[in-house]
């Protein structure tokens, strides 16, 4: 598979858009211990609903984030940090009005600078 730079989304996308896979860099340290800022993340944008508890690219209040998400029976969502320096975030129904699932992270690679 060949990739081309997508300047509009500040990431990499497959040349064949029918694959619906996006390759992004890790963007913060919320998920440290699983992956780090700069690691490569493969995101399947066909999965744009929370079909299971997993790690997703989401858009929350206009900001793109990579977060581990757990669904709760109370219709709340938990954003669970893998970095213990961060607090658990609970999203209630009102918060979900500004919430969108972009895709699920299906693979990651550790980045090494050479």
From TrEMBL:
GO molecular function: DNA binding
Domain Peptidase S24/S26A/S26B/S26C intervals: 20-106
Highest taxon of the lineage: Bacteria
Keywords annotated in UniProt: DNA-binding, Transcription, Transcription regulation
InterPro entries the UniProt entry points to: LexA-like (IPR039418), LexA/Signal_pep-like_sf (IPR036286), Peptidase_S24_S26A/B/C (IPR015927)
Listed name of the protein: S24 family peptidase
Phylogenetic lineage: Bacteria, Pseudomonadati, Pseudomonadota, Gammaproteobacteria, Pseudomonadales
